[in-house]
Write a structure and sequence with these properties.
This protein is α/β, with parallel strands linked by helices and 214 residues long. The protein folds into two domains: 3-82, Methionine synthase domain (Methyltransferase, Methionine Synthase (B12-binding Domains), Chain A, domain 1); 93-211, 3-Layer(aba) Sandwich (Rossmann fold), CATH 3.40.50.280. Helices cover 57% and strands 11% of the residues. The chain has ten helices and five strands, in the order ααααβαβαβααβαβα. Strands 2-1-3-4-5 form a five-stranded parallel β-sheet, with helices on both faces. Strand 4, helix 9 and strand 5 form a beta-alpha-beta unit. The relative contact order is 0.12. The mean pLDDT is 93. Bound molecules: 5-hydroxybenzimidazolylcobamide. The site of 5-hydroxybenzimidazolylcobamide has 39 residues, from helix 3, helix 4, helix 5, strand 3 and helix 7. The site of 5-hydroxybenzimidazolylcobamide (HCB) has 39 residues, from helix 3, helix 4, helix 5, strand 3 and helix 7.
Amino acid sequence: MTIFEKMADAVIRGNEEECMELAKAALKEGIEPIKAIQQGFAKGMETVGINFESGKFYLPEMMLAAKAMNAGVEVLEPVMASKGSQGAPKRATVVLATIQGDMHDIGKNIVKLLMSTSRFDVIDLGKDVKVTRIIEEAQEKRADIIGVSALMTTTMAYMPELIEDLSAMDMRQHLKVMVGGAPVTEEWAKEIGSDGYAKDAVGAVRAARELMGK
Ligand code: HCB
């Protein structure tokens, strides 16, 4: 088994200790933290989702897997942060949130981590955030980009509402919207009039840079 396969397997088994040990081992091997997350831990999460859907896993297994992945990511986090260009001028202000009704925040937190280390000024509103609050905070903080996450088909439905409200308030000229999360597709993002879409955290940084025209 490769180290990435081991990482995925440790998430599937919900083994927190093992995830932490594997994260340390990956760092020791010189593997980029974001690569370890995307090719290792996140792959395990994909399987957890499939197992949950097919009835092989129940909520407790999904919760254990989430806890294990978070523990592994926490080990990688300081290394990612130290690799960021601290002291450099900030690129743009991004308000990040998991949309209302949705408690899934692992992916959003990874996006936050990578954006912060890529010189974006990130304001994280957390999970289950009402559309009205996202707009208020973006206005107050003079954000350049709103990045929203949804992991459920039911909560994805709030994304068009956010875009429509911003349009109605005539706020879209200087405030770009980027959407993401497992059920969100590029096609759907276009359909709802989102300015950007990303399928993973690396893509989110790329999309945000493109939105800022840099
Ligand atoms: Co949850 N859950 N869950 N869950 N869960 C999903 C999302 C299902 C798809 C599983 C399934 O059925 N196959 C499903 C949703 C089905 C649907 O669409 N209708 C589901 C369900 C049903 C539920 C509950 C309703 C279960 C229940 O209570 N009966 C409940 C919902 C509670 C609620 O939100 N109101 C629930 C709860 C949980 C937890 C708490 C056990 C746990 C979340 C813990 C946490 O986040 N703190 C959990 C988990 C872990 C999952 C799965 C297994 C993994 C999600 C995850 O973390 N993936 C998920 C299955 C799946 O997604 N395939 C399952 C890993 C991250 C790294 O990927 O896609 O989130 P990501 O993020 C990427 C990417 O999308 C992108 O970058 C990230 C990093 O690369 N990105 C953005 C994300 N946001 C972005 C924003 C941008 O602007 C740009 C890019």
